[in-house]
Design a protein that fits this description.
It contains four helices and five strands; from the N terminus they run H-E-E-H-E-H-E-H-E. The longest helix is centred in the first third of the chain and has 13 residues.
Length: 169
C-alpha cells in the first residue's frame, strides 16, 4: 500500500487568485503604482485578469506617467485601472457570482464597473487609501448595493517564490 500523502503547504484559493492578481501587476509600466486584478468564478476558474496601464494603442512612451502637475500632464486622465481591465478582458460577459481579487481597494470609478458587472465579492490586499474621497465613495456604494460584499485578504504566508529553473520541477 502506498502511504504517500498529498502536500499540505499548497495555496488556498484566496492565496492563488491574489497571487495571480499580484503577478499581473508586474506587467504594469507605471513607475509609482502597480496594481493587478484577477476575476474568478464559483467553479474557481479564472475568467479575467488585468493590470493598470494605458488603453490599447496609446503609447506608454508618449503619454505622461507623472502623478503631479497639470491634469493633462499626469497619468490620471489616461490610465485604465486593473479592475476595469480585468472586467473588459473577461472571457465571459456574464460576471454574475464572480469575485475579484485586487491589490488595492477599488476607487469609486472601478467600483461602479464592478457593481454593474454583477461581481458579488471584492477581495483586496491593501486599503492604504481608505481616507480618500474615492475609497469612501466606493464603500458607500458597496454598502448600498446588496448583491456585493468586500473583505480584506489576510495571507497565511508572507511571500510566494516563483522559480524559473526548470530543473527544479
Amino acid at each position: 500500500m502506498d502511504d504517500t500523502k498529498k502536500r499540505s503547504d499548497y495555496l488556498s484559493w484566496d492565496e492563488y487568485f491574489m497571487a495571480v492578481a499580484l503577478l499581473s501587476a508586474e506587467r504594469s509600466k507605471d513607475p509609482s503604482t502597480q496594481v493587478g486584478a484577477c476575476i474568478a468564478n464559483r467553479q474557481n476558474k479564472i475568467v479575467g485578469v488585468g493590470y493598470n496601464g494605458f488603453p490599447i494603442g496609446c503609447s506608454d512612451d508618449e503619454l505622461p506617467w507623472s502623478r503631479q502637475g497639470d491634469f493633462l500632464s499626469t497619468k490620471y486622465p489616461y490610465v485604465c485601472h486593473a479592475e476595469l481591465n480585468a472586467v473588459l478582458n473577461a472571457i465571459s460577459t456574464d460576471l454574475s457570482n464572480c469575485r475579484i481579487y485586487v491589490g488595492l481597494f477599488p476607487c469609486n470609478e472601478c467600483t461602479k464597473v464592478i457593481i454593474q458587472s454583477g461581481i458579488e465579492e471584492i477581495i483586496y490586499l491593501s486599503d492604504k487609501y481608505r481616507e480618500s474621497d474615492q475609497v469612501r465613495a466606493s464603500k458607500r456604494m458597496l454598502d448600498m448595493a446588496s448583491h456585493i460584499s468586500y473583505r480584506q485578504f489576510v495571507p497565511n504566508r508572507s511571500s510566494i517564490l516563483i522559480d524559473f529553473d526548470i530543473d527544479g520541477l
